[in-house]
Amino acid sequence: MAGLAESGSNPDVDLLYDINGLAKDAPAWSDRVMEYVGEYGLLLGIVLLVVWCWWSVRRRGGEDAASTVAALVWAPLAAGIAVLVNVPIRGFVERPRPFLDHQGLEVLVQGKTDYSFVSDHATIVMAMAVGLFVAHRAYGLVALVLALFGGFIRVYMGVHYPTDVVGGFALGTAVALLLSPLAMALLTPLVKAVERSPRAGWLVRGRGRAEGEDTVIPEARTERTSERDLAA
């Protein structure tokens, strides 16, 4: 697999130098920002999107609240499973980091000694973004944009080849989508059981949003109003 890292007319390496060259031309403060965003910021952003989506769903309630929350639970689980699947892939390919085989790269993060293919960061953010897209299209689209930007930053930082990122995107998407039917079949009944729980039901449906409550209260008010009218 060493041929994956050889230069020459390899478009993968050419694109690596083109994107990483942007880091050389950027000011130092900009590279520090990109370093933080690439290592932690975008992943944190997608996690916050999942939490925000959950909060919105539980406040709104509705008949599909349980299935949506189940899909949100699946998003981080899919990321974890995808990373585990990547362990044997990395060991089989054994692709060194690009800065070990190519000179002149601007490496923004030091100390990366593990293998390069496929990118764990790209795998995690894409798996979570796809899982969020399954749960909620609008939030999912935002997460997908963040995931794509995150993959670009990994190359910008000089720690991955473009194909490392593409491989991570493919792996994260495959795990999130292919295992989604099984995950939903297992998680949805569990989330519905939580929804019925007096103590933990708030995790799925906000207080005052229990099923049928919105119809019972108006009817009760109508009946009381009718009784007052008759008495008058």
UniProtKB/TrEMBL annotation:
It is found in: Cell membrane. InterPro entries: PAP2/HPO, PAP2/HPO_sf. It is a multi-pass membrane protein. Keywords: Cell membrane, Hydrolase, Membrane, Transmembrane, Transmembrane helix. Coiled coil: none annotated. Its main location: membrane. The chain crosses the membrane at residues 40-57, 69-89, 115-134, 141-159, 165-187. The keyword Transmembrane helix applies. SUPFAM superfamilies: Acid phosphatase/Vanadium-dependent haloperoxidase. It comes from the Bacteria. Residues 69-180 form the Phosphatidic acid phosphatase type 2/haloperoxidase domain. Pfam families: PAP2. This is Phosphatase PAP2 family protein. It comes from Streptomyces indiaensis.
